[in-house]
Design brief:
Length: about 190
């Protein structure tokens, strides 16, 4: 089994990194190969909406980190995505990535209905927001992130096995035992 972790947080030791580290160590304790990629370190040009990739299944832009990451997503069995909330959604670095690799995430039927290309794979979402709990969920801050990721992964064929949301990160810079348990439980769900 291969696990790919995408970290979309710009904070090197923030809550997202701490949660993803717990998840990574839990997988590694089961002798599972894990690779972590920080989306902020990727060199990806924005999509130009030419729609050529829908027919050719290849992006016409010069090769950059988008195609390399798509290959890693294709090879993994579990995808873990950690994303802070930016305006009730995922950060631009993550959005640009998924815009560019849509052709490798889902196909289309003759009636333009999405067909997931990653059926049988599992994913875990981790999200944080400075908005305190429960307002981070009520005001669709972390919930907005989760919904955006669910939309992408669901139509790509992934089964979402866990969604971990933490609000109030402005004043709480560490994860507590409850969050650690949720992270470990998410890994166990992937192993079933």
């Amino acid at each position: 089994m291969k696990v790919l972790i995408l970290n979309a947080s710009p904070r090197k030791n923030g809550n997202i990194c701490q949660m993803l580290d717990v998840i990574k160590k839990e997988f590694e304790s089961q002798d599972i190969e894990v690779e972590t990629i920080n989306t902020n370190n990727l060199n990806i040009k924005p999509c130009i909406a030419c729609m050529t990739c829908r027919k050719s299944l290849k992006c016409i832009l010069p090769e950059d980190d988008a195609q390399k990451l798509l290959l890693k997503i294709t090879e993994c069995q579990v995808l873990v995505i950690g994303s802070p909330c930016f305006w009730g959604n995922i950060p631009g670095t993550l959005k640009i990535l998924f815009d560019r690799i849509v052709y490798g995430m889902m196909g289309e039927s003759k009636r333009n209905i999405p067909i997931g290309l990653h059926k049988g794979k599992k994913c875990i979402f981790v999200s944080t927001s400075t908005t305190p709990w429960p307002w981070n969920i009520i005001f669709k801050q972390t919930r907005g992130v989760i919904n955006a990721l669910k939309e992408i992964c669901k139509y790509s064929g992934f089964k979402v096995v866990a969604k971990i949301e933490k609000g109030g990160t402005k004043n709480d810079t560490t994860i507590n035992e409850s969050i650690i348990k949720k992270c470990k439980k998410a890994v166990k769900k992937c192993l079933k």
